[in-house]
């Protein structure tokens, strides 16, 4: 048959190759099919005034070389019976299409696009015009042409790949029919001639075979299929599929719902799995596009499952998914068989509970994909167009039997599968190992039955066609009984407008309508497969989606009954105070880096330094003012200096009081009363400066600090320098002559002292003029690496350099005084305190030599201000104490405890004093020489 037809086709001149292919498909495959299948009917035919086509996946895809596999009870038989049920209801309704009977031609797609294409050619045979004048049989008689069966619309065809291919073919033949009056081309089927011989006339090429003028066939999609359904966004393209309508929403709505679900669960890193074909690939494409537009969602991997997977293919898919193991969420647009094999591979890889599946409506609430894989599927979230169980259909289907349902040519096969028995049929060998069917079995009573989820949509699709035809009949055939001439044949483009205009309550009570693209509104139920904490494992409704998501997280539970939503993220959120360092090319992956030091989190991607007077919050989300501190009186750094200062002030006050009280006694007069009082004043100020250094800084306090910091030492050192200078000049002058040196009187001594002091005061006043005293808050001094310990120091604006300059003049006086003390070391110790002053200077120099490294060595310490203040005040107090203890405490002791020594001694002339001092010096030098071993001579004791 095939070769014969092909031979006749080769005689056609100038027919485009695409039409030749269609000719082969139409006639060659059709004849071959008949030859191979024999007399077994391949379709259900129900007579009627108007015929509706039906394409259902009654069987699954067969193995290689076999078009069909096992029967599909739910997707196939349930949906097919739903169409038959709807036709029965419509034909028995006196108000809907009165006096018009709807017939049907229902075909099996076997879940395979190529097989569905072959079957769908049945629908277009009646559209091919037959011209009796052009065709003659071999005996010269005209062909016998029966009245054509006109299919006005097709309910189906389940899979997207199937639907798109069928829609294209039906549209193509509608184009050929559109041009029939212009005689561009006329095709005839050879079977109408008894001799199978076709005569031909001149053929004219048909330009624009895929023109957009399509009129005859309406393809009405009702549900998604194995290859995943007619939800494809591609089918909303009116420029390509203008006669395509569907009572289920397109995948763009479904993809939006799935994106909303993923984001509601806090996931931002997922993988996608798609069965090869329009449904799977278009669904994933829609998901990817919507996720990109929404933002905040990254795709770890997008994997396509081959149409004909090789052995081990699904194990490889699981391994690929585990390459990005953090992406636990898997968005799956796959057919039922692929879903099952993915779950099997995950179970085989011992990954039960790892993957978090979000399944499209091809998974829905079906048991078949998860059968024997329940543990792996636990927690899977699935989506399904909002549906309801039709009780009337349950009653109808439960009443079907082998006797009353002979119109369904596949029902016997369903019966055997449903009741696990075997019927005796012609040509089928009896299997003794299987129970024989009695015919008395009953659906739902003797077998498990649950209405398939898309039954509602099948019924609504048939009713949509009926309502459209009813409205069309009311407009074109008013008052006419049955089909009038204007509806014979039904004009496709006009019928399309009526279909798009329907608006009625469907079988579940929800509205059935279409938008301008032929799409139904998006309404979905959200399910989760649960096993733990439930009496019966199964799918639980956890929410719904109608333009926006309404999810009940409290109803969700995951593997092991855990109610906390698992993570599916590339990187976990950074801790407080950590910024995201993005991974190049993967916007949902990042590394967390702590904002360290004095940085705070400016935004999620960057850190910034806090202002100089602030430090970061503990969580580093902002900055807070740095605490301001000062040296408190209760601080250990203040207690010791204050204690020493108080003792010193009390001692100094006691000395002054004693000297004033015994002002005219020989010891007081011999010590040089005028300079002694000046020296004691300086010592008092040295002790007093401790309180100014610890007091809370203010402008007044800072001014007094500048004034008295160096003044006390300047007064003390000036007085002692004047004393030692006077002694040195007296004895140096005595060596040369008996005439006393100048400026050794008390008045002269006071003048010299005040001149030396005035230099200090002049420097301080110049300092006041150049830089007026003021306070500052130093935030750098106590700024350790840990900002929690950062403090701002309230202090006077006195740098280390300015402080040393303030003391430098006093130190120069001290060094000069020490030099004179060294030069005057030979003076008798009973003469005007020369040696006590010397010892005082030596000790003071040692104190200040120790002070300098301590003071500057703590410059980098966070306790710098406290250490330096304490060091300075203690050093000054020690210096004052040395002066007070060596110069005045012995005198006070004699005055108070040995008043008998405080008497006037014999006066000597200046010359006698100098001679006595000279002899004393020589004796001292000889004594030193003997001790050094330079002379062994004993002195003449008589001398």
From the structure above, extract its key features:
943 residues, alpha/beta, Rossmann fold, Tumor Necrosis Factor Receptor, subunit A, domain 2, six-stranded mixed sheet, 24 helices, 43% helix, rod-shaped, disordered N terminus, disulfide bond, G-protein coupled receptor, glycoprotein
Structure description:
With 943 residues, the chain is an alpha/beta fold. Among the domains are: 250-390 and 523-561, 3-Layer(aba) Sandwich (Rossmann fold), CATH 3.40.50.2300; 401-442, no CATH class; 578-625, Tumor Necrosis Factor Receptor, subunit A, domain 2; 636-904, Up-down Bundle (Rhopdopsin 7-helix transmembrane proteins), CATH 1.20.1070; 906-937. Helix content is 43%, strand content 14%. Strands 10-9-11-12-13-16-17-18 form an eight-stranded mixed β-sheet, sandwiched between helices. Strands 1-5-2-6-7-8 form a six-stranded mixed β-sheet, with helices on both faces. A hairpin with a 7-residue loop joins strand 16 (524-530) and strand 17. It is rod-shaped. Keywords: Cell membrane, Disulfide bond, G-protein coupled receptor, Glycoprotein, Membrane, Receptor, Signal, Transducer, Transmembrane, Transmembrane helix. This is G-protein coupled receptors family 3 profile domain-containing protein. Residues 921-943 are annotated as: Disordered. Residues 637-911 form the G-protein coupled receptors family 3 profile domain. Belongs to the G-protein coupled receptor 3 family.
